[in-house]
Amino acid sequence: MNSIENNYALYTLDGGILYIRYHADIVIKYEGAVKIVADRLRFQQGICYPALCDITGVEEVDKPARDYLASEGSILLKAVAFIVGNPMSNIISYFYLKTTKPSIPTKAFQNVEEAKLFLEKYI
Prior knowledge:
This is DUF7793 domain-containing protein. Residues 12-122 form the DUF7793 domain. It contains four helices and eight strands; from the N terminus they run E-E-E-E-H-E-E-H-E-H-E-H. The chain is α/β, with parallel strands linked by helices. The protein has a single domain, classed as STAS domain (Transcription Regulator spoIIAA), CATH 3.30.750. A six-stranded mixed β-sheet has the order 1-2-3-5-7-8, sandwiched between helices. Helix 1 (30-44) runs parallel beside helix 2. The longest helix has 15 residues, at 30-44.
């Protein structure tokens, strides 16, 4: 299985990094967060990876979804790099990083290459 896709994101593997590209203009509520994590875990088949998450298409993540992603969303992940490219995704990542204190190394980047450099040490 090289990739899977649901109503929220496309999941792919390349070079030991899990890529998660969220679809444009999505709003994530608790039920969506559960689906996102469940599909990711199914795709990973028990293998732990660093993840590059392109959240530029995310419009909103409600508090129950943020809380779920902060706890369950880190399962089987070594580190996370968020790609932010617009004001909304930048605010979402900043708010997430400041209020949830992820249990794994997590940073936001505007540049994919910088994000990949950050993740390479976790491959």
